[in-house]
């Protein structure tokens, strides 16, 4: 199974890892796009006023321009430790054991705006860039990433894809149409048995808790049926919907 996670706008600063090595990230076929996007972001950071406008930064956020300027030389940390916010607080990767972290390292990617999908154990620096950005010198991120990311995911040897990304990041590289997959929407049970009321804050927390449970159980999942069987045993309320590629996580 391959798990696709969204990033978070909030991130931890610093790190103890070496500088960013784009050629060491997961999905190496994305290297050329990564180089182009990172170069454009660093170049933009040399023009603070332009950077603030393009990245939609307020006066109190302009320190993020310097963060982007140092993208290539800043210290790194594993991607799943870099991000904070509701989903990653629920995942609480820092309290997972070595075996659990290693399981996630084999099965999960975080879809970032500047680097595309990266392994959860890949070292990345802090940065500021949203999925909808358009950087001078490169196509809008949706156009830059969509084809290469979907092609890279096609090459991953995973019989089933669990897609927990937000729609903004799905737009940067949908799961290949031929892949067996489930896009997860978090809903509350409205009494109808289908769980139709979508949630926002609890959406992120539920996804983080789901990934933590998977890491701790380390199940072998090669199909949707395997995932449903694991969920039933783990008391996770996952339900299919009329759309075979969209599932509900009911909380």
Automatic annotation (TrEMBL):
Q: Name one GO cellular component term.
A: cytosol
* Gene Ontology process terms (BP): response to hydroperoxide
- PANTHER family in the record, alphabetically? PEROXIDE STRESS RESISTANCE PROTEIN YAAA (PTHR30283:SF4), PEROXIDE STRESS RESPONSE PROTEIN YAAA (PTHR30283)
Indicate what this protein is called per its UniProt record: Peroxide stress protein YaaA
Name its species.
Microbacterium limosum
């Amino acid at each position: 199974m391959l798990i696709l996670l969204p990033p978070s706008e909030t991130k931890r600063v610093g790190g103890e890892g070496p500088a960013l090595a784009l050629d060491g990230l997961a999905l190496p076929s994305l290297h050329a796009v990564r180089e182009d996007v990172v170069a454009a972001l660093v170049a933009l950071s040399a023009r603070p006023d332009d950077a603030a406008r393009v990245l939609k930064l307020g006066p109190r956020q302009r320190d993020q321009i310097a963060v982007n300027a140092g993208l290539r030389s800043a210290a790194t940390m594993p991607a799943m430790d870099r991000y904070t916010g509701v989903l990653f607080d629920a995942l609480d990767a820092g309290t997972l054991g070595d075996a659990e972290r290693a399981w996630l390292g084999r099965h999960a990617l975080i879809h970032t705006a500047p680097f595309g999908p990266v392994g959860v154990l890949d070292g990345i620096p802090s940065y500021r860039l949203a999925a909808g950005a358009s950087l001078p010198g490169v196509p809008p991120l949706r156009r830059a990433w969509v084809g290469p990311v979907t092609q890279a995911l096609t090459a991953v040897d995973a019989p089933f894809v669990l897609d927990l990304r937000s729609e903004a990041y799905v737009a940067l590289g949908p799961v290949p149409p031929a892949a067996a997959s489930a896009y997860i929407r978090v809903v509350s049970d409205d009494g109808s048995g289908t769980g139709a009321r979508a949630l926002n804050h609890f959406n992120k927390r539920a996804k983080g808790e789901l990934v933590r449970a998977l890491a701790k159980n380390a199940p072998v999942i090669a199909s949707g049926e395997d995932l449903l069987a694991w969920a039933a045993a783990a008391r996770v309320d996952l339900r299919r919907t009329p759309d075979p590629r969209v599932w509900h996580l009911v909380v």
